[in-house]
Amino acid sequence: MQMNWLNLALFCGLAAGHAAFVVALINRLHALPLPLAILHRSRQLHDLVIVILPALFAWYAGVKGPALFLNDEGWHRLPVALLAYLAVCAVVALAVPPVAIVRRLRKPALQLSNHSRMIDVAAELGYRPVGSGPYRIFTCFPGNEFLKLDVSDKEFEVPQLAPEWDGLSILHLSDLHFTGTIDRPYFERVAEIAESMPVDLVVFTGDLLDREDLVEWLPATLGRLSAPLGCHFVLGNHDSYLTNTAEIRARLEQLGWHDLAGRSQVVEHAGKPLVLCGSEMPWMGTQPDLSSAPPGAFRLLVSHTPDNLTWARRHGINLMLAGHNHGGQVRLPLFGPVYSPSISGARYACGAFWESPTLMYVSRGISGRHPLRLNCPPELTRLILRPAAYSPRIEGAMQVRNDQRVAATTSHGSPQR
């Protein structure tokens, strides 16, 4: 019998749609506050389903049974339920290319400039700071950028920012993930770099520890940082899985950090109030109460996940800083991020987004439970805020961008990454 190449090509397209559909489900499942054991089992099941189901279909429908790979007909002989699922896979497969194109064309919202430099921490230290923690095998992947830190100064035009606050700077750290796989010297070097970047305000957006005993690393890392308007933090879902969450908070507060989880506070800058609030939802606590916030004050939300964007917009948050999604950790050529534990999938994997009245910046984070970074290096970012010259014209769908200014060169004169 002669091979039916058309049916084989259709099968490949449907298998790709199946994989994308399963990934979309697992992304959204991992955005929920489920027990860690369930999330681990679902990820293992996902690995099997993506590979095994297409293989079974290829054998029982492609070669045996209707023998789709060997005949011109046979699709009508498949069960109705299977045909319905294949139709879903076809729709998903057709949607993937345009979604990928839109992601590739999207520029960071309201971004005026970006000056970046890549620091190879392993080269600076003279060795790879890899410990004996779990997932050590990932550190051996060719092209892994887990020890290369993208240090950036990003300027944003921010609606409602007071002219007196022109140049307000915020150091944004996220997702340190102390697991022991990446050893302490890496994080000490990150803290040293952060300490050398003068700012008005420092924020940490969660996922600090995966091992309780590594709370001892805090004085030599986050404990080194300070700023005129203070250092403020929320914890993340990985912190919520530990039993010593209260101790983590206490140790950070002893080091001068302010816990924003489920609360708000007002600090004054250049004679005007700045409302700082934080959220660890949906894993811990409640959303902050803003009922007593000064009317018209600039509002900054520190949130672990970008999934709190809807709440932020509803409560008039002007700037929201988040992490959690790690930029996908692996970004495929052309397609971009794949895995992003969010109810929005990979839409907010990383970068800047304007959804009126909120400008949201999502960090790729400093590290991760799985030390694998392909085309997605960790980041340490200083955000510099500028008043929006034409803020009344900025609407939710506009996402004003300046392509020429965004395509800034790095501080070393190399093209922007």
Estimate the strand proportion: 15-25%
Give me the strand/helix succession: HHHEHEEHEEHHEEEEHEEEEEEH
Helix content: 25-40%
Mean pLDDT: 91
How many strand elements?
A: 15
The biggest beta sheet reads:
7 strands, mixed
Give the N-to-C terminal Cα separation: 51 Å
CATH architecture of the largest domain: 4-Layer Sandwich
The CATH superfamily title of the largest domain: Metallo-dependent phosphatases
| Structural class designation | alpha/beta
Strand order of the largest sheet: 1-2-15-3-4-5-6
Please name the CATH topology of the largest domain: Purple Acid Phosphatase, chain A, domain 2
Overview of this structure, please?
The longest helix is centred in the first third of the chain and has 28 residues, at 36-63. This protein has two domains: 5-104, no CATH class; 108-406, Purple Acid Phosphatase, chain A, domain 2 (4-Layer Sandwich). The strands form three sheets. It has a seven-stranded mixed sheet. The protein has nine helices and 15 strands. By secondary structure, it is an alpha/beta fold. α1 (5-29) packs antiparallel against α2 (36-63).
